[in-house]
Amino acid sequence: MNKYKQNLYTILLIFTCFIASPFIFHKIWKESAEAKKQVELPPPTVSSSANTGTNISNGGDSVSNENSGNNNTTENQPQENIPPADAAPVFGQSDISYFNDALFIGDSRTVGIQEYGIFTNSRFFCSIGMSSSNIDNEVIDGASFDDLIKNNKFGKVYVMLGVNEVGNDFQYTLTKYRAIIERLKTHQPDAIIYIQANLHVSAASETNIINNANINYLNSLFAELADNKKVFYIDINELYDDENGCLTAAYTSDGVHPLAAYYKQWCEWLCQKTVATDTSTEQATTTAPATPETPVQ
Q1: Rounded Cα gap, residues 57 and 42, in angstroms
Q2: H or E stretch including 231?
Q3: Contact assessment for residue 105 and residue 157, using Cβ atoms and an 8 Å cutoff
Q4: How far from 290 is each of 117, 161, 242, 274, CA to CA, in Å?
Q5: pTM here?
Q6: Domain ranges across the chain
């Protein structure tokens, strides 16, 4: 009897396992699939805080790849939250009275403006051979450069130096030139500063050192000092260049300086490249720059 019961229990156990096993295996498979599904879920989406301009990151990477290259902005973000790029300067036309409170600093080309130009009421601190490196050695009309800018008030300052330094180390020259601009900003805080590009030389006058490629490179370094707020860069070469980017041979006798007759047109070109000293006025802010007049022999 005991053996019979034992066999009966065994049969019942096998039968129970046979009936229940599909349900057990199904439950195990379902739990395993759900667990796998949870592992493969995508990362949570970025909350609305992404639209505030805050860069939310996940593991060091930017979350919002859709906005890459677009300052992480969305079309719902207020425009004022985007820092504006420095706007290009708007130059306009002024008459020669604009230059009544101007100071011109430079080498022999600026001497030419002083002697043959039309700005009779402007102040000049210029000499043949002047450079950013030796400006503090100059005394003109009884005043040094420091005396001049500390003891006078100018509304505009024009600086054109560098052609006498093309053979020097460019970075050294840039350091000296930057120091001049910084001194002007310190002692003439209300003045507009114009950095004038160095004039090209004629093709026949180019040498291994004094050549327009080097002049252009030096000019490009100086141009980076302009902030288009108080310091502006203007390039006179658009007036005098030939088709090869050299000083037009017919406008010069030595390949370096314009003939005397052409300094008047240089001054007229400067009148077209002015910005207002008072932003509350419309002087020289809305007129598009005129096409420079071709010098006539």
Answers
A1: 16
A2: strand 231-234
A3: yes
A4: 19, 26, 19, 12
A5: 0.67
A6: 96-272
